Structures are given as C-alpha cells and as structure tokens.
Amino acid sequence: MTTDHLPETTPRRGRPRDAARDRALMDATLTELQLHGYGGLTTAAVARRAGVSTATLYRRWRSKEHLVIGAAGVWAEDLGPDRDTGGLRSDLRTLLHDKATALDGPSGRLLRAILGEAAHNRALADVLTQEYVAPLQDRVATLLTRAVARGEIPPVEDPVVVGELVIGPMITHTFLIPHTPDSRPGAEVAERLLPYLLRALGARTE
Amino acid sequence: MTTDHLPETTPRRGRPRDAARDRALMDATLTELQLHGYGGLTTAAVARRAGVSTATLYRRWRSKEHLVIGAAGVWAEDLGPDRDTGGLRSDLRTLLHDKATALDGPSGRLLRAILGEAAHNRALADVLTQEYVAPLQDRVATLLTRAVARGEIPPVEDPVVVGELVIGPMITHTFLIPHTPDSRPGAEVAERLLPYLLRALGARTE
C-alpha cells in the first residue's frame, strides 16, 4: 500500500485493490446506516465491519459525513440508462420498475436513513438533489418528450410534478407502511400506479 | 404536584397544568428531533428545553422511544375532520392543503426526523401507520365514495394507491428538494398536483 496522501475532499478512482476496499466500506456504511440511522453510525463501527483500520477509513474519507456522501454515490448507478421501448406505457413501466428496484434495495435503505439528517445538513441535501432527484427528473422529461412527439399525450405542462407522481407514491408505500424483510413494496406498487399515471398524463389507457 | 405513579405505557390525559407541561415536552421533542435527528436526541436535552427536570420527564414518558411516540400523537390533530365541500375538485383541494399545512409544519419535520428510525423500530413504524397513514387513507376513501355517488368519477379500483398519489408527491417535494426556511413546499405543490389527480381519477377537469 502506498503512503501518499489522498486529496481530502475529492475521492479518486483507485486501483482494483482500492476499489474493493471502497466497496466494502460503502457496503458497511449502508449496513450501519440501516441498523442505527445517521445519528447512531460511527466510523469505528464501519471500519470494523469492512475489515479495515480506522486509519485506513480516514485516509479515504475524512469524516463521517464524507463517508455517507460517498455511499450516496451508489444512487448514480441505480437508475440505469434511459431506454426507448417504443411507447409511453412500456417506457413508464420500465422507469417505475427501475426505481422500484432501487428503492427496494440498498439505495432505498440509504435514502430512508439519511432523510432526517438531510433536513439540517446542507451537504447531504445537495447530494440528494444531484444524485437522486435530478437524474430521475431528467429521465421523466426525456420519456415525456418522446411520448408527446409520438402523439400519445398532449404537451406536459408540469414535468416536475410528473416526476414527483412517479417517485412519491413508491417512497410513501415503501417508507410509511411496515413490510416484511422479504417484501418488495416498490415493485408491488409500481404496477398499480401505471394506469393512474397514464390517465393523469392524458394517455388513452386501452 | 401529585406523587402517584402514572401507568408506565399508557399516558393519561392530565389536568390543565399537566397538559401545558406535556405540550412543552412535545414541542421540545420536535425541536430536538429537527435539530439532531432521532439518534442525536437525548431526554436530558428535551427536559432542559422544556424547562422541566429529567425526573419529571421520566414520570411522564418512561423512555426516549415513548417520548417520541407521544410526540407523534400530534399527527392525529393535524388532518382536520373530513368536510363535504360539494364536489370532488374542492374536496380534493381541501385535503391536499390540509396535508400540505401538516407537512410544512412540525408534523412534517417530525415525520422526516423519524423515518429512518422507523425502518428498524417496529413501535415507531406502527405509530406511523396508525396515526399518519390510516387517517389519510380513510379520508381519501370517504372523499372518493362521495365523488362516485355524485357521478363525478367511475368507481375507484385502488383507493390505497390514490392515497399514495395524494401524499407521496408532497412528501418527496418537501423532503428531497432543498428549501429555504420560509418556503412552504407542500402548499406550493398541492395546487400543481390537483389537475393530474383529477385526470388520474377519470374526472373531467373542465
């Protein structure tokens, strides 16, 4: 292992051995957040779970906050690329199931664990916007533009609200209602949302 | 002050002096949750902020968890009674603005502060369902039944999803996007949601 110092604020992409260590630290962070919430998370517990020393952790992430923000980077990988499936219904279904998969997995657990903290932590709030909200809004806008161009729906006056209609009900269904560890609430509600969203957009549903 | 012991798990409604003390404890709990999240909240800080001794706090609430669950009881007062305003559009607008007012106030801050904790605290999760989700779902169902009876919309196949479409977008708009301390994101998005919800329900929007 090299002993050179990493920049304090800009994580770099490391060699394969570093990438594996990063992944272990991220997984450990998610697990600790899920178990104890942001307030209960300690860098010592994360390092122990990841099998690295606290010194190693601090060489990579200089604070608890940077560690959690780094973990939030997993979001960017969640929402696979936009795919043109040829029609609004299948485009929307694909997006709903992509988001459901994310919400039912580590990314959803992370989101839930840091929502409270983000209320009074501007750095976390900004990560939420950049890594979570903006990619979703972009993908919704792209999908709607295609549907309008195909003549499937009239022009959409408020695509931001449509984005909230896509993600909001899945979040409340996942976060506000108790579920069993094996249930997949996001996926369950995605299919039920589809006809309502299509009607809301003015699409013919048959 | 009497020295008799209160039941450990069932808070009773007290005399006026006790009610004022309870209110101060609840307000202090909400403030501490907002400032520090569930993990950072201590009963000592809540007692100090409410101007009571820790012993007094523990006579009323036997643990941090019971204190927070008691604070969650403010939800029951949030969602005023159902009102028949004579039409689906105005019924729905009234409900949206009632929920927006709640989300933009202490109840929304409490919800945000405990969402992460509720993921691994079944008692809190159950309070969420009983005090927050169930009253909303009941009120949505009542409103839809009236609209169907008036012939404004066809029968609703999935009133639970309609409830999530009412509350979900307001929650994501409030929790996921940074706002200024003075902004009222719930109220702002309520009016924008209305035409989409009416179309989703199959109502004529003109």
TrEMBL record, chains A, B:
Keyword DNA-binding set for record: yes
Entry annotated with the keyword tRNA processing: no
Pfam entry (one): TetR_N
Name of the featured protein: TetR/AcrR family transcriptional regulator
DNA-binding region: 42-61
Organism whose genome encodes this protein: Nocardiopsis lambiniae
InterPro entries xref list: DNA-bd_HTH_TetR-type_CS, Homeodomain-like_sf, HTH-type_TetR-like_transc_reg, HTH_TetR, Tet_transcr_reg_TetR-rel_C_sf, TetR_C
Taxonomic lineage from the root: Bacteria, Bacillati, Actinomycetota, Actinomycetes, Streptosporangiales
Keywords on record: DNA-binding, Transcription, Transcription regulation
